[in-house]
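The protein record passed on below.

***
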Amino acid sequence: MREFVGWGLMSLAALTAAINFYFSVLRYLLYRHMGWEYRFVSGLPVLGTICLVFALACVPQSMAAWLIAILIATVDTGGIPWFLIVILLEAFTWPKSVDSPSKKTPDKTDSLSVPPES
C-alpha cells in the first residue's frame, strides 16, 4: 500500500511539473508564435516538490525512482530547486553599478533641498 501511495504521489508530482512547465515555457512560446498578447500565469508552486519528497519516502529506494524524481524536479519550474537557481542567478547577475539607497549622496537638484538664499 505504501508503495502504491508513493508512486501515486510521484505521478501527481509529474502532473504538477508538466503544468508548471507549460505555464512558464510552452505557453509563452505558443503565444509569441501566434502573435498574441502574453500575460504571465503562475502554475502550482512548491506542490510538485512536496509530492516528490513524500513520494521518495514511500517508494522503494531504487536508482529508477531517484532518476525519475530528478527528471521531474528538473522539469518542474515552479519547484524549490528552480526557485534557488533563479535566486542565485539574480544574485550573481545583478548590475554592480547600482548603488544602494543608504550609500546614495544627496543631489543638489533634489526637490527636498533648501534653495540658496539670494
Remarks:
- The CA atoms of residues 11 and 51 lie 9 Å apart.
- The chain has a mean pLDDT of 84.
- The radius of gyration is 23 Å.
